[in-house]
Amino acid sequence: MSKKKLTKIIVSVLLIYGILLLLLIAAENSQGADGQGITDIGKALWYLIATLTTVGYGDITPVTSIGKLIGVLLMVSSAGVLTFLLGLMFSLLFGSLLPGLKLWLYRRKKWFVFSCLEERTLLLARKIAKGNPDAAYIFIGQNSKNFNDVFFPIKHFVIVDNQPESVLAMQKSASESSVFFMSHDGWENYDNAWALYKSSQDKKIQIFCETEYKPEHIPVNMTVFSRSDIIARSFWLHYPPEHDERIIVLVGDDKLTRNILERALLINVYPDDHPVEYHVFGDWCNFRRDHYILSNTVSVNESKAGWDSIFFHNEPWNDSHALLEMASRIVFCADDEAVNLSNMSELYNYYPISGRVYVCAKMHENSKAVFFGADDHIFTKENVIQNKINHLAIQLNELYRQKSGSGSKWEELSLYQRQSNIAAADHLLTKVRLLLSKEQTLVVSPETFERAYKEYCSYNEEQKEDCRRLEHKRWMRFHYLNNWQYDPVRNNNKRRHNLLVPYDKLTLQEQSYDDSAWEILNEVK
Fold first, then answer.
1. Spatial CB neighbours of 488, under 8 Å, sequence gap ≥ 6
2. How far apart are CA 21 and CA 29, in angstroms?
3. What is the pTM of this model?
4. DSSP state of 438
């Protein structure tokens, strides 16, 4: 209940009781005798309290007919008012006073504050708590359902009904805190995150904002993420194309499918002898309008030697029988989980297939498909906070600055420039798999990166030049997907870059810049 509504109720109750008491006194004075009955305000208040508390001493009672009638009204209403007052007392105790006391007790701890209380914020909090067991976890909202069974292993948690700014005001100024804006309204999340940033620049606060909006500039202490982007990145990093996978079918035309295709083009960048065909079904007109120079980096609706290809299909996915039979991988990745499950069932029931099938939905035990995108796999500390990937991207940026003698520090980069470095960091696993292609089973670990770096160091100059070519190809693809074009004079505002040329047209010094993307393998811990 809001404070405004509660105030209205209390004022209304007091007004009604005041009127009844005045009527009672007037009735008793007009018809009472020799000072008997309730004839003044003191006696009226005493009678009200005795009635309200159901004590009923009987030392003061109405003596007139009208007074007794008003007394009946007071007695009948007192039961409801008493219940309301007791509820209000418990509400204040457990809704404001007790949470406030817990916040005061936790004021010296590290805080993780979540803008809403729901299953996915609890999932994320539980994952973070495994590495931060002594921190305090604060949820904004009301405990309208029983979440106690999922709070484990969180030891210190508080549910409050305040805004993050007022909650953080109770924390000791030297303590660290992280705030997660994760409501279902992405624009609201961004507005609230930006408002918190402006009001708390003197505090140690890390802000995480879930939104599809990608601002041009964001503060260094703010991280912007989206569910669809996390799913897309996680999918290709966990299920990269095998060497024999050349034809990949994507079914869907929603935000998630679009992100999966974009991430595929950025992460699955292989040498020219390993081209990949992507076949996508649905309405992709808007995607093609946004990526209006897509043909500069991939072949569109035709095969081209040494190039990856994208085929846009207007017909329903289940009309392409031959394609489904020969596809290496079929991915059902619409935003609607029910649609994906329905399509999967139809595929298995009616079509002979030889490739792998991936479905964005919660896992179903009795299916041969590989399931991905469940919230418990998506809302993890690494996916949302992104410490590791950001750390690698920052190191890549610094290595480039050292080699080129130019460039900006991480905190000075625009969101686009940061995303460029993050895309390079995402491609590291692809580089590792290429370097360790002789290993049939590849378990990603610091030791894996160490072996990959040693393999890279053993390469001769010709092999290292092939590595530079691949990295330049990946770098150009990122820029072309974001509609950058070549110009002898670099202009970031117009999306023009002087290095968007074939590798052989770069100077030797410019070619050496691409070594950084391979040398960073030695920094992965």
1. 498
2. 12
3. 0.80
4. T
